[in-house]
Structure formats: C-alpha cells, structure tokens
Amino acid sequence: MSEFYFNIEEANTLWKRWKLNSEKNPNREAIVHWVAGEEPYRWTYKNLIDTAKKFSQELIKLGIKPGEVCAIIIRHNPLFYPLYIGISRIGALPAILAYPNPRLHPEKFRQGLEGMSQRSGLDYILTEKELDPMIRPLIENPKSTIKAVYFPLEWDLSNSNDEQLDKEIEELANKVKDTDAAFLQHSSGTTGLQKPVVLSHRAVLNHVLNLGKAFKLSEKDKACSWLPLYHDFGLIAAFHIPLAYGITTVQLNPFEWVLAPVILLEAITKEKATMSFLPNFAYNVLADKIDEEELQGIDLSSLRIIVNAAEPIRHDSHQKFVKRFQKYGFNPLALACLYGMAEATLGVTVTEPGKPITELAVDRNELSKGIVKFADNNSIVRICVSSGKLIDGCQARIVDDKRKDLPDGFVGEVAVKSVSQFDGYRNYPEKTAEVVEDGWYFTGDYGFRYNDEYFIIGRKKDIIIVAGKNIYPEDIEDAVNYVEGVIPGRVIAFGEEDPELGTEFVSVVAETNAESEEEKNKIRMNILKAGMSIDIAIHKVYLVPPRWLIKSSSGKPSRKTNKERILSKTDPQVWSR
Amino acid sequence: MISPELKQVILKQLNLDDFDIKDETTAPEVPGWDSLNHINIILAIEEHFKVKFKSYELLRLKNVGDLQKLLDSKLGK
C-alpha cells in the first residue's frame, strides 16, 4: 500500500487543492453520486472542477463577493458538489443546511433560518425552486439579513464559459489566504440556538493531514458514506478529506439510506470501498434490521476502516455488527472509533486502524462518582469503549469544574487544543468566550484518560443525541410549553437510552392539572404534535401533577434531577406512555 | 382504502389509540412515524402479515396507500 503523503504547502486553500488534484489525476473519479436502483453519476476530478468553474462564473455575475455566506439547501443532487466548490472558488463561504423535512412547520423553518441568518449573517440562500414559497416571505421581510434566494439547479451552464471572466475569478481565487474562512458549519437545533462554526482553509487542510495520517489514508482508498453533508462527520470525513487528498468518495442519499439501509452495503460491495463512517445507531440498524435475503452478494472484505463517531460509542453495537457481517467478509479489525467535534474541524482522537479497540470494564457506581475503578466481582459493570489516542496537532486535558487538571483515573471535562481549531462562533463572541480559554476549547463532554487513550462517557451539556443528530432540549421545551393543558414553563425534555437502536430517544416530562385518562391521552397527542412541528419525534411522554418538577438553582426545572427521578420509577403519580 | 388490520398494526407500533390514516397520508403526518420508527413499522407489518418487502419496493412508496397496495400484491389480493 502506498504511503500517506500530504503536503499542505503545495496548495494551501481548498480550491487550489481541488484544482491540483484535477491536474494530477484529471480522469480519476472524485465523487460517485449514488442513487438507489440507478446507475450512479460519476464525477471525475476534471469534470467536477470544470463544472465548478461554470458555477463560479454565475455566482460572480450575481454579485456574490468573497467573504459572503451562501447557505445551500439542496437535496441529494449531482450538481450540489460543483456548486459548493464554485462558491469556495470565489472566496465566498458555503454553509450547508438541512433540507426541511415535510413534518417541519413552514413558520418554524423560517424562524430557524431567520435566527440562523441573524447569527451567522447568511447573505444568500441557494436552494430548490420547491422551497421558494417557504423562503420568499423571509427575504421580503425588511429586517432580513438575507439578500437574495437563487435556484442554481435551474441555471443553464452551457454559456458559462467566458474566458476573461474565468481569468478574473482565478485571480480572485489566488488572493484567498490560507487563514481566511473556508466555510461555516452549523450545529443542530431549530430556534436559532445553532452555533455557526467558522473554519479556515488552514484548519481544514491541517485536518486532512493529521486525520488522514491517523486513518492511514492512501491513494488506494475509497470512501463510501450516506452521512448528510450538513453534519461535520459527513462533511469532513466523507467529503473534504477524500477530495482534498485526491481519492474517490461515494455519496449516498441519507433519506434513501434510512428507508433502505442495505444500500450502503451494496455500494461498498459494488464500489469496493475501503472506508466508511457511521454513527453508533447505524451499526444496530445494519445488524438488526436487514433481511438475510437482501444480503445476497454482499461482500464487505474491501473495508479496511469503518469509523464510529458523532454519538456515544456502545460496545454492544460493535459486537452485533461483527456477528452479523463477519460471514460477509467484514474484518472486525476494521472497526475504529473517533472522538471529536466541529469546533476542532472533526477529530481529536482516533483508534488505530487495523488494531483491536481497547475496552475497559469499570465499576459503574464508582464511575458515576468520577472515579475510574476496574470492575471486580461486586461491581455493576460498565464497558467503556476507547475513542483512541490524540491525532497529531491535537492536545487534550481532563479537568475539574474549575478547569484544573485531573490525574489519570478520574473523570472530568475534556478540553482540547488543535491546529484545526475553529476561529470562534461567527458573530457570537460571548459564546466563544464561554468555551474557549487560553486557546483551550472546553468541550462539555465528560471522559477519562487511560494509557494515553481517551474514553468519553457522558456530557455536561443537556444535549440529546438521537441517531448522531444533536437536539437541544430547549427547542422541545419551548414547543411543548404552548400545548393546551401543559403548565407553561413546567416542562423538561431529556434523552433516554434506547438499547435496541443503540442511540437515545426523546422523552418529555410536563406538569398538568389534567386528571382523567382521556385528558392525559389528549395532552400526550398534542405534545407529540408539538414535537412534529419542529421536526423532532418525541417517543415518551411523562405527565406529572403541578409542582412535581424540582427546580435547579437557576429557578428552572432541573433536567438532570428530574430525569433521575422519573427513571427511578418510584412515584405512582407519574403517568407515562 | 387502508384496511383496518394494517391501520391497527401501524397504530400499535406507534403506541397510538387512533389516528386518521388515509390513502394519501404520509409518514411525517403521523405522530411518531419518523425515519427510525419507519424501519420498525415495516418489520411489524412483515411479521403480522407474514410477508417480506424488498428495500427497493419500500423506496418507491409515497404514502400509506402505496404501502397498502404493495402489501395487497404480496398477499395476492
């Protein structure tokens, strides 16, 4: 296998890197755009770059300038990629946003977009014509920061070949510095709680270097992923790293994958992919939810690394995946784990490809007190799965509540410092100052270190992670507060472990004066609908009498304390369904 | 027309007492019917009616009416 080689100085912005790759290997496939049951669309590096140049001409003609933010809201489409690259070429900042699920109320979608635009300073929205009626009222609002909405899939690119203009754009592209912002990534959330992470070209290319090295990337590698590109795991691992390194990435439609998970295995088989990336729940879905008949002809022997990240890693999920797919050629040593976050571009630690993942059996009770003690005969055991060692260019500390270092063997908050660190949350200095101190980013995740390996076991923040997607409980609580029969302000939402799917599900506790079964069922239904209006599936509703919820020191109902109280299942006053 | 039997299987899986499910109803309109639950609903239908769906058949479904038609074809109706 060829050695890992990546020299940032050869091409120090993303555009220069993509162009260099198209010059070196014009006919190599860059992106295989996969659509279930159809022949995939195959972009070579040359075609991809040539089409991106056409898009950049159209963008310049519209008056889009370097540094302006272009939000892209487009479903799985082969033209998405050259559009993204074309935006980057002119020095503007692409920001990929999720296409709204039909269950999301149009007004909620607009509110989210408006909140995001005020925070991130979105200048343009590039989307599909179908969304025009939903987005138009937002643009027409005089207070909106959004300058225009465009439909690039409708553009006729056949005349976008003005040589003089192209020369001018190339000069513009050459002026982009490696320290300039390359793109924005948004955290999840629906009511403007999203934090826009700004990453520079240097940060991203440093990441290709350091994470690529940790993945033992080679010219022979081929990535295959269904992950949405508005999520850092998909965007960095399955899009930026392969394209900057100059190899092929196979891109599946996330909406198709959730309906037919087997398509990932088919794509890996047909394309002989060597790398894939999955949040933990996907291991359960693939192992448990596909019929044996559908697996005929599946061959996973080409996979040399499959990376688990984006939600807590569960020992059982790996076990069942290996058990199911070993007979289809899957090598158990291809399992790998990564810990990271968008604020560090993606990865901070990763396990070594081709080596077994360290798992520690520790005493659960001691762990809950912050002490790492190996399990003995009297212990209730918790298996902690390693997220590996630090990648080059990253440092990490385990700290206490006062941000003082803790020795190995103790659980604390993970703080990281990375050459791929973000430049702060855009237009959000107070939030940046909260989490960054002396160059260290305080992650809000709890973990411990053992033999230079990091084990992530929980989080300080109340974020709920469902199938790799971060959900803010505040969003749910805000929506449920308006439900008739619920006492306003007396609601909490939290994540409950879903052992079947290897992820969490959303639970809501609400105070109510309702007493009859009929009234309670009606309130529950309305709570479920309130969740639907913000595109969040609430799986369990707990109804409690007035003044049941315990307040925290801030005067609001405490999520942590009330979650523990609910899950102890000791109070007969709690109604649940 | 959605058969009462299919409706019951769906409602049971979603832990709902009742919900107006028609031919043109789509998953996002039904409380709890998200992409993760979708897999479980399909598995529950397969188990109840002793049928097997192929992934590509499921990708073509636009609404519950399509699901009913697919189910009927499997049952030889």
Using only C-alpha atoms, the radius of gyration of chain A works out to 24 Å
Q: Give the termini separation of chain A.
A: 55 Å
Q: In one word, what is the shape of chain B?
A: globular
For the report, how would you describe the main beta sheet of chain A?
A: 9 strands, mixed
| Through-space gap between termini of chain B | 13 Å
- What proportion of the residues of chain B is helical, as a percent range? 40-55%
* Beta-strand share of residues of chain B: under 5%
User: pLDDT average of chain A, as an integer?
Assistant: 94
User: Number of DSSP helices of chain B?
Assistant: 4
Rounded average pLDDT of chain B: 94
Protein architecture, described:
The complex is a heterodimer of chains A (577) and B (77). Helices cover 32% and strands 25% of the residues of chain A. By secondary structure, chain A is α/β, with parallel strands linked by helices. With 77 residues, chain B is mostly helical. Chain B has one domain (4-74): Non-ribosomal Peptide Synthetase Peptidyl Carrier Protein, Chain A (Orthogonal Bundle), CATH 1.10.1200.10. Chain B is 55% helix and 0% strand. Chain B has helices at 4-14, 35-49, 55-59, 64-74. In chain B, helix 1 packs across helix 2 (35-49). The A-B interface holds A 36-37, 101-103, 255-256, 258-263, 281, 285, 289, 291, 293-294, 466-467, 501, 503, 521, 525, 528-529, 531-532, 537-539, 577 and B 15-17, 26, 28-29, 31-32, 34-39, 43, 52, 54-56, 58-59.
